[in-house]
Design brief:
about 425 residues; alpha+beta; four-stranded antiparallel β-sheet; 13 helices; 16 strands; about 30% helix; globular
């Protein structure tokens, strides 16, 4: 929601949303000529860019600025909710896209005017026009949904969430951020789990932003404070016991060539390599062995691994499955965090190490040699759970409550203090 007091007042908040919109007039169904004109003249790529620009900011998702922005958003949501909030859209809204002319378009326009994604108007029609296309893209951008301009399934369900629930989200997250900001230093790395995003922060500004893949619901990424202390180029992956049990055994049951295909070797308790065919894969026998994946393009950790103290043995890393970064719901790991364009993050972390810059980092990742580098300027790492935030432009963003911490009303967590802060 683009929060401005004028927009909220003009869209009926002062008088009550429920009584404001029914009085608005709208025109009837349009002909095919009008539809063709709408399709021809609407700059869909331009609308996507405009939607993305509402999110562009160098403010960190976790900072004192976040506190101020959330407080401003809450102050304006409260009277809006008290006035009735926005109406739920009917099922006929599902699937609407540019050029459609149906009665449900009117409901969609009313909904997006109420949430500030579309400029309020006293008269509108039932044509899905360029203005509505922009509004849908604004809504999708704010909710972390792939920007298509179509009311697809994620968009439809996000629109069904009532305004009072969104207000509660804002209030919960304000409390979370207020609890966290006293621990912040001048520079740090933060991973926001619900957004599956990582930010590099220096002097109160984001200097790098990275799309991430984080823990799935049944294998969540832990919330912790730690300090990044090591980079490993072209790492060997030592398969955790939990993954041997949950993934490796089922994979081998389905495909006995799985280990060979992915260059994973088995070792007995004496450290001697063994033939995987000697292991009984129909039982838990594999838990008596260690499994190591060789470095290479196929390696699950990719070409670089970022280490930090963690009692749960999670870390950040590259990945060969880069297509996962294109997904909206990037909750696919076993707790570790995969980072897009991780080479840029590594170069930033190694700024204090003589001889390391972006070109040397890229060269190390393109090679095949395993190399461990201690980070001289160790940076704090915070993994967080923020499902609602705002920027100074007045744009309020929301994400799904993937781990159900909002549903539990959690404002504080049993944060793992992996290092002293």
């Amino acid at each position: 929601m683009r929060i401005t007091r004028r927009n909220l007042l003009r869209s009926g908040v002062a008088l009550g949303v429920a009584t404001a919109f029914p009085k608005l007039a709208y025109a009837g169904i349009f002909d095919s000529f009008t539809r063709n004109q709408v399709l021809k003249t609407t700059d869909r790529a331009g609308n996507t860019q405009a939607a993305l620009e509402t999110l562009q900011t160098n403010e960190p998702i976790l900072s004192f600025d976040t506190v101020n922005n959330l407080q401003a958003a809450i102050a304006q949501y409260i009277p809006f909710v008290q006035a009735g909030g926005w109406e739920q859209v009917p099922k006929e809204v599902f699937g609407l896209i540019l050029g459609n002319s149906r009665p449900a378009v009117v409901n969609l326009k009313r909904r997006l005017m109420a949430s500030g994604d579309m400029a309020p108007s006293q008269k509108f029609n039932d044509m899905f026009d360029g203005e509505l296309d922009l509004a849908v893209r604004n809504f999708q951008a704010r909710h972390g949904i792939s920007i298509s301009g179509k009311v697809d399934e994620p968009t439809y369900y996000a629109m069904q969430i009532p305004a009072d629930v969104r207000l509660n989200q804002l209030q919960l997250n304000l409390a979370r951020v207020q609890n966290l900001v006293p621990t912040l230093t001048d520079s740090y790395v933060v991973v926001n789990i619900p957004a599956a995003k990582a930010e590099v922060v220096e002097n109160g500004q984001v200097v790098q932003g990275h799309t991430a893949v984080v823990g799935r619901i049944d294998r969540p990424t832990p919330i912790l404070n730690s300090r990044i202390n090591q980079i490993v180029f072209n790492p060997y992956w030592h398969v955790p016991r939990s993954i041997i049990e949950k993934d490796l055994i089922p994979d081998m049951q389905r495909d006995p060539t799985y280990l060979a295909t992915y260059h994973i070797r088995a070792f007995n308790s004496k450290g001697q390599e063994v033939d995987p065919s000697t292991i009984d894969w129909t039982t838990k026998d594999a838990l008596n062995y260690a499994f190591t994946q060789d470095p290479g393009d196929f390696n699950s950790e990719g070409h670089v691994k970022i280490n930090f103290p963690s009692p749960t043995n999670v870390y950040m890393h590259d990945t060969p499955e880069k297509e996962l970064f294109e997904d909206d719901a990037r909750f696919d790991s076993s707790g570790c965090m995969r980072i897009q364009n991780v080479n840029q993050l590594v170069a930033w972390l190694l700024q204090g190490n003589p001889g390391w810059d972006q070109s040397s980092v890229d060269a190390a990742m393109q090679g095949s040699q395993t190399q461990s580098v201690s980070v001289k300027r160790q940076q704090p790492l915070h993994t967080t759970y923020i499902t609602a935030w705002a920027n100074r432009q007045g744009t309020v963003s929301f994400r799904d409550d993937v781990y159900q911490y909002d549903a539990q009303g959690k404002t504080t967590f049993d944060t793992i203090q992996a290092v002293k802060t």
